[in-house]
Amino acid sequence: MPLRLRKFIGMILLVLLVAIYAIVAMIVAVRTLGDQPAWVHFLYFLFSGTIWVLPAMGIIKWMAGPRPQ
């Protein structure tokens, strides 16, 4: 697969990942954190705000293509 096509597909996947992840994280927060103390909100958003990086790293590595020998 050409590198330009990989980067285009990867960009679309990253945008979809961030959009879907943000919606799901918001739905989970609204349904579960309603009457929790502020520190629980802080920990949830700290964790959920950084965990999306793991799948994004996989997409970015795939976009870069195979390592040159």
From TrEMBL:
InterPro entries: DUF2842 (IPR021265)
Taxonomy, superkingdom: Bacteria
Keywords recorded for this protein, A-Z: Membrane, Transmembrane, Transmembrane helix
Pfam families the record matches: DUF2842
Residues that span the membrane, as ranges: 12-30, 42-64
Name this protein carries in UniProt: Uncharacterized protein (DUF983 family)
Originating organism: Rhizobium lusitanum
